[in-house]
Write a structure and sequence with these properties.
heterodimer; A: Glutamine Phosphoribosylpyrophosphate, subunit 1, domain 1; seven-stranded antiparallel beta sheet; 11 helices; B: alpha/beta; Alpha-Beta Plaits; eight-stranded parallel beta sheet; binds iron/sulfur cluster
Chain lengths: ~375, ~500
C-alpha cells in the first residue's frame, strides 16, 4: 500500500468538489450531494472520494464525534485504551456501511462520541478544542495503524478509496441529513491505497475539500508546523486545514480575514483601497506572509454554521456558485449544480481570491 | 640588496605592434607598473607590482594589453603548493601577519552551485511573469504573535517597526573609509531608487548622505565610530555588528593613512590615527549584554526602528541565533565565510567560519523547531552572486539577502583582492582623490540599479517557473530545491532532497 506521507511521498492530484448549504438550516439528505458529485465522475479516477456533513448528529451535538480508521484489531485496542485515558466515551459503534463490490479493502471504521475527561482537561490547562486537537495529532502520528479522520461536533467526514458516488453509497449517506455538505472526487497522479489520504481533510469542525496543487506547500507547511501541527500526509489539503484552524481558532481571525491571508489581494489591489482598509490588508499580509497560498486551488471550507468557497488569486481552478431560495450550491462545474437544482435564481463564477462565505441565518439554531 | 625570492604572479603582456606609447596605462595604474623607458622610447612594465585589476587593460586605447598568470613554476609538489611557499617567503621577510581583502578565494564547496530549482508542469501550471503580477515585496522585522482588536472588533495595528523592500535584496555593510565617497553615494542613490536599503558599515554616516536616511541602515560596531544621536535618528534601521563573515572573531582596522579629514569627521576620530575596532564589543560579553545594547538602541530610537544583529556564520551559529531571536532583535543578519572585507588577516579569512548556505539552513530550522522563527527576520550574506543564489537563499529560509561584493563588481571592481592597499584603481576601495574620481556616482548608481533590475526580472521568471507569484510563498519552501552531488549529511543540514528523489 502506498500511503501518502510515508517515505516522504507527496502525491499531487487534480479533483472535483461540490457543496450544498441551507441558510435556513434545513436538513438535506446526503443523497443530493452524492448525485451532484457523481456528475463529475471524469474529474476523479476512483482513487479517493469523500464527504463532510454538518448538523448530522443532532442527538450528540455536544460531543466530539471521532471517526477512526484502524488497519488492525491491535491498532484499535491500543487506540481505544488511549481514548479511554483522555475522554469520556458516550457512545461507540462501527460506522454503518453497505458492502459493495466497488469499495474493497476497507479498514475497520469506528465512530466515538466523546468529551474530554474533566480532570485531565483541567490538568492540561488547555481549552477543550486544543485538548482534542493535541490528542488527535498524537494518535495520528504515534499510534500505528490508527487514523482519526473526523473530530468535530455535530459533523462528520466519510471517505474512502473509490469513486465518490460509490463512497457515498458505501457509507449509506442517504440515511444522514445535514444543513451543509461538501464532497470530493480525487484524481491523484499516483496510486495511493490508503483511505486517510482521501478528502475531506478535517480538524475539529473545519473540513476542507480541495482541488489543486499548491506551489507554496513547503513554505506553508514549515510555518504551520511551528505551532504543533504535524503534516504527516504531505498533502495540500492537510496543510490548508491546519492553516484555517490556526488562523481562525487559534489566532482569532474571522473567516473573511483568514481568506485574505491565504488568498491575499495583490499589492496593486491593496494600494487602490481606502487607507484604512489598505492598512488592514497590508497588516494581515505582512504578519501571516508565510500562510499565503500560491498555485492553483479551489477549496470549500466547511465549519459549524457556515461554508466558504475560495479560489487562488489567479483563479487557476474552476469554481461556480449557484443560488436558489435559501440554498447555495458550489461546485467545480455548473453541471454538478444543475443536476440537483436545474432552476437557479443566480449562478456565477467568483473571482480569484474572492471568498464566497455563506452562513446560517441569524435566527437558526442547530 | 637581498635576493627577492618572489616571482611575480602575473605578467603584463604588451603587444608592441599595437602600443602607440600614449602612456595612458602609466597614468592609470596606481601600482606604478607601467613606465616609459625614455632612452629606448619603449613602454616597460614591472610585473612584480601588478595586482591584476585590469584597469590598464580596460583603458588602453589600442587594446594592446593583457594580463596573464605567470607559468613560472616551482618544482611540482602536491603538498607544498606555490602559494604556500610564497607566503612563507613573504612572512620570513616581513615578520608580519598576511593581509588580504575581499572574500575567501579557496576552493571550498559552493553549495549554491549544488542546489537545483524546481519548475511546475501539468499538475500545476507555471505562471508567465509578463502576463501575471509577480510580487517581490518583502517586509523585515518581528511579527506579533497575537492579534488585537479595538472595542469595535477592528484589528489594531500592533506591528513592531518594519523595513519594507521592493525585493528581498539589500546592499551590505561597507564603511565609508573602506570604500570611497563615490562608492557610497552610488549605493545610497541606488538604494533609494530601488526601494531597498544600503548599510553604512561601521564608519559613520557622511553628512551629505543624511538625505538618503530612509534607505539607510546604520551600523553600530565595536569601535562605535561615528555613532551619535543624529546618526541613529537619520536611519531606517540600526544594525549591531557582532561579527563579519570574512573575519569572525576579530575587529576591524582602517590604517591612519586612509583617515583623511572627511573620514576623521565622519568617524569622529583624529585625522591620521588608525581606526581600530576591538574584536568583541567591550560591553557585550554575553547574550544578556547584547540584549541591553539592543534595548538601549531601541530606547534611543523610541522603538521606531528595527534593530538588526549581524553575526558571522560560525560553528554554533544556530544556538547563537536562537539566543539573539530572544534578545529583542528584530532582524538577524548572518554573514558567511565567503563574505568580503576591505582587509583581513589571510589565515582568518580563509579558515574561520562556515558557508552561509549551511548556516542559513540550520539557523532557519532551529528557529522553527523552537517556534520562534516569527520573532525575527533572517537576512543572509557572504557571497550571494546572482539571482539564483537569491532564490535559493529565500527557499532555504532567508527573508532577504545582503549583497556586497556583487554590488562592488557592478561598480567596476575586478576582484583583484587588493583593497587593503588603498590603491584601488577603480575608485572603490580607496581614499585617494585622483582614484576616487574615476568612479562617477551617476554611472555607478545606474549600474547598480541595472543589476538589481536584471536580477528582479530573473527572480520573477524563476518564481513563475515554480508556479509561485509572490515571494513569501517561496520563503522556506525547501521542496522547491534539490541537491546534486551532496552527501546525506549535507542534504540533512540543508533540509533538501537529492535530485531525482
Ligand atoms: S595604454 Fe596601451 S597604447 Fe597606451 S602606452 Fe599603454 S599599452 Fe601602449
Ligand atoms: S595593477 Fe592593474 S592597472 Fe596596474 S598593470 Fe596590473 S592590471 Fe594594469
Ligand atoms: S574594490 Fe578595488 S581594490 Fe578591492 S578588489 Fe575591487 S578592484 Fe580590487
Amino acid at each position: 500500500m502506498f500511503r501518502e506521507g510515508e517515505n516522504e511521498n507527496r502525491i499531487p492530484s487534480g479533483c472535483a468538489i461540490s457543496g450544498i448549504f441551507s441558510k435556513k438550516g434545513e436538513r438535506i439528505s446526503g443523497e443530493s450531494i452524492i448525485k451532484s458529485i457523481s456528475v463529475m465522475h471524469d474529474r476523479s479516477n476512483g482513487l479517493g472520494g469523500g464527504f463532510a456533513g454538518y448538523g448530522i448528529y443532532p442527538e450528540y451535538k455536544d460531543f466530539y464525534a471521532l471517526h477512526i480508521f484502524y488497519d488492525t484489531q491491535a491498532a484499535k485496542d491500543e487506540c481505544e485504551k488511549y481514548l479511554e485515558r483522555c475522554f469520556e466515551i458516550v457512545n461507540l459503534s462501527k460506522i454503518p456501511i453497505k458492502k459493495t463490490r466497488k469499495i474493497t479493502n476497507e479498514p475497520l471504521i469506528w465512530r466515538y462520541f466523546v468529551y474530554p475527561l474533566p480532570v485531565r482537561l483541567a490538568d492540561s490547562h488547555l481549552d477543550e478544542d486544543e485538548y482534542v486537537v493535541r490528542r488527535v495529532i498524537k494518535i495520528n502520528s504515534e499510534i500505528k495503524g490508527a487514523y482519526v479522520f473526523s473530530s468535530g461536533k455535530n459533523m462528520g467526514v466519510f471517505k474512502a478509496v473509490g469513486f465518490p458516488e460509490d463512497v457515498g453509497e458505501f457509507y449509506r449517506l442517504a440515511e444522514y441529513e445535514g444543513y451543509s455538505w461538501t464532497a470530493h472526487g480525487r484524481y491523484p497522479t499516483n496510486t495511493p491505497g490508503w483511505w486517510g489520504g482521501a478528502h475531506p481533510f478535517a480538524m475539529l469542525d473545519y473540513s476542507i475539500v480541495h482541488n489543486g496543487e499548491i506551489s507554496s506547500y513547503d513554505a506553508n507547511r514549515r510555518y504551520i508546523e511551528m505551532f504543533g501541527y504535524k503534516c504527516t500526509l504531505l498533502t495540500d489539503t492537510e496543510a490548508i486545514t491546519y492553516i484555517f484552524d490556526y488562523l481562525v481558532r487559534r489566532m482569532g481571525l474571522t473567516i473573511e480575514e483568514a481568506a485574505s491571508v491565504v488568498a491575499a489581494p495583490f499589492w496593486s489591489t491593496i494600494n487602490k483601497k481606502e487607507p484604512q482598509e489598505a492598512e488592514r490588508l497590508k497588516y494581515l499580509r505582512n504578519i501571516f506572509s508565510s500562510l499565503l497560498i500560491t498555485g492553483p486551488f479551489s477549496i470549500l471550507l466547511g465549519y459549524t454554521g457556515g461554508i466558504m468557497a475560495l479560489n487562488d488569486r489567479l483563479k487557476l481552478r474552476s469554481m461556480v456558485v449557484g443560488e436558489r431560495g435559501d440554498r447555495v450550491y458550489m461546485a467545480s462545474e455548473e453541471a454538478a449544480i444543475r443536476v440537483i437544482e436545474p432552476d437557479l435564481d443566480r449562478i456565477y463564477a467568483p473571482k480569484g481570491g474572492q471568498p464566497v462565505i455563506v452562513k446560517l441565518n441569524d435566527d437558526v439554531k442547530i | 640588496m637581498p635576493i627577492n625570492f618572489i616571482h611575480p604572479e602575473y605578467e603584463v603582456i604588451r603587444d608592441f605592434n599595437k602600443c602607440i606609447k600614449c602612456r595612458v596605462c602609466e597614468r592609470q595604474c596606481s601600482n606604478e607598473v607601467h613606465k616609459l623607458d625614455p632612452d629606448h622610447n619603449i613602454m616597460t612594465a614591472d610585473d612584480s607590482k601588478c595586482v591584476c585589476c585590469h584597469r590598464c587593460v580596460s583603458v588602453c586605447p589600442t587594446k594592446a594589453l593583457k594580463i596573464v598568470k605567470s607559468d613560472h613554476t616551482f618544482k611540482t609538489n602536491s603538498n607544498w603548493m606555490p602559494e604556500t611557499i610564497t607566503e612563507i617567503y613573504r612572512q620570513a621577510e616581513s615578520g608580519g601577519v598576511l593581509l588580504s581583502s575581499m572574500g575567501n578565494p579557496k576552493p571550498f564547496p559552493v553549495y549554491w552551485d549544488k542546489i537545483l530549482i524546481n519548475a511546475s508542469q501539468v499538475t500545476n501550471p507555471s505562471i508567465d511573469p509578463l502576463r501575471e503580477p509577480m510580487e517581490t515585496k518583502t517586509f523585515l522585522g518581528a511579527k506579533p504573535n497575537k492579534i488585537e482588536r479595538d472595542k469595535d472588533g477592528r484589528l489594531i495595528n500592533n506591528l513592531p517597526p518594519q523595513l519594507e523592500l521592493t525585493l528581498p535584496i539589500m546592499f551590505s555593510a561597507m564603511s565609508y573609509g573602506s570604500i570611497s565617497y563615490n562608492a557610497h553615494e552610488s549605493l545610497a542613490r541606488a538604494a533609494r531608487e530601488l526601494g531597498i536599503y544600503y548599510n553604512t558599515g561601521e564608519g559613520g554616516l557622511h553628512e551629505d548622505f543624511y538625505q538618503y536616511g530612509a534607505n539607510t541602515i546604520v551600523q553600530v560596531a565595536s569601535g562605535r565610530f561615528g555613532v551619535h544621536k543624529g546618526y541613529l535618528d537619520a536611519a531606517a534601521a540600526v544594525e549591531i555588528k557582532m561579527g563579519q563573515g570574512a573575519k569572525p572573531g576579530i575587529g576591524g582596522h582602517l590604517p591612519g593613512t586612509k583617515i583623511g579629514s572627511d573620514i576623521s569627521k565622519t568617524r569622529m576620530i583624529p585625522e591620521g590615527t588608525d581606526a581600530i575596532s576591538p574584536a568583541p564589543h567591550h560591553d557585550i560579553y554575553s547574550i544578556e549584554d547584547l540584549r541591553q545594547l539592543v534595548y538601549s538602541l531601541k530606547e534611543a530610537t523610541e522603538y521606531k526602528k528595527p534593530v538588526i544583529v549581524k553575526i558571522a556564520a560560525v560553528h554554533n551559529v544556530a544556538a547563537i541565533a536562537s539566543g539573539i531571536a530572544r534578545s529583542g532583535a528584530d532582524i538577524i543578519s548572518i554573514d558567511g565565510f565567503r563574505g568580503g572585507t576591505g582587509a583581513a588577516p589571510t589565515r582568518i579569512r580563509d579558515n574561520v567560519g562556515i558557508p552561509i548556505e549551511l548556516a542559513l539552513a540550520s539557523v532557519d530550522e532551529r528557529l522553527r523547531a523552537e517556534g520562534i522563527r516569527g520573532n525575527v527576520s533572517l537576512v543572509i550574506g557572504g557571497s550571494v552572486r546572482s539571482s539564483t543564489d537569491v532564490v535559493k537563499a529565500i527557499a532555504l529560509g532567508a527573508d532577504a539577502v545582503y549583497i556586497g561584493t556583487a554590488a562592488l563588481i557592478a561598480l567596476g571592481c575586478h576582484l583583484c583582492r587588493s583593497c587593503h592597499t588603498g590603491l584601488c584603481n577603480w575608485g572603490i576601495a580607496t581614499q585617494k582623490a585622483e582614484l576616487v574620481k574615476r568612479l562617477n556616482p551617476e554611472v555607478g548608481y545606474t549600474r547598480l540599479v541595472n543589476l538589481i533590475t536584471a536580477w528582479r526580472h530573473e527572480i520573477t521568471e524563476l518564481m513563475g517557473c515554480m508556479g509561485i507569484n509572490s515571494i513569501e510563498a517561496l520563503k522556506g519552501n525547501r521542496l522547491m530545491l534539490r541537491g546534486i552531488g551532496l552527501n546525506e549529511k549535507e542534504l540533512e543540514i540543508l533540509g533538501i532532497k537529492h535530485a531525482g528523489e
